[in-house]
């Protein structure tokens, strides 16, 4: 049911205009110095359709810190290579708590509530490392291949900064390890987790990578990575958990499965149609970009691009 005469560029321009009044609203992530220097008013947005069209507005080609959007890629790869056994080690219910919360881990015996909070993403990184021998390498190869951009890389300053300020993540990893739910050394898991969060990529790159889920699990080269059923499941978990304790609000406003990162990016999937990535560094209290959410809200309101 794609509207063939839809003018994507105009829709993107209108989404950018809608976001303009809120750009700079909220706070740039400042838990590490390397992110605190981002321009709070920067904005970019890209759209990659399943038909191969790519459009963008603003700074859509400017690389930014991918952060937790990478958790979507590790999940897809861990499921593709390791299968359903992963779901014995991580749940798939919204947590209702902040992304870096430790609270539920104790009562739930080291089984994180879902793969997108930090606790769950650490388990997913561990699982991916076990099946591939190199979690970071697997994610980097995948993102480079899907985006067609061999320059996607890890920002070593951000990765180092994460490890220097990562007491909370280290606490989560040790707590999970205490329950026997990490199979690799804690330091190895943290190192690969920090590194994949510290990847830098643009809205264009990430929208193209999101094509995997828009095509129901088929990669850019036409090979299948995820079964159609697994792609449906990943999209469902994205919708319910991808924006943490604001997932209800995000579903209400945007109506799409989406994954945010504290670098200010949000990658949203329109199954069967395409993927959208919006970026602006200022965040709401849940750690989701205010400008990106507003732009996606506008885009799905103006177009018929929603799962609802
Ligand atoms: N690297 C960040 C952290 O572990 C990722 C958090 C995020 O983007 N929500 O805290």
UniProtKB/TrEMBL annotation:
Annotated keywords: Acetylation, Hydrolase
InterPro entries tied to this protein: Beta-lactam/transpept-like, Glutaminase
GO terms of molecular function: glutaminase activity
Annotated catalysed reactions: L-glutamine + H2O = L-glutamate + NH4(+)
Name recorded for this polypeptide: Glutaminase
Binding site for substrate: 68, 118, 162, 169, 193, 244, 262
Complex and partners: Homotetramer.
HAMAP family, sorted: Glutaminase
TM ranges: none
EC number in record: 3.5.1.2
NCBIfam families hit by this protein: Gln_ase, PRK00971.1-2
Domain of life from the UniProt record: Bacteria
PANTHER family: GLUTAMINASE
Family: Belongs to the glutaminase family.
Gene Ontology biological-process annotations: glutamate biosynthetic process; L-glutamine catabolic process
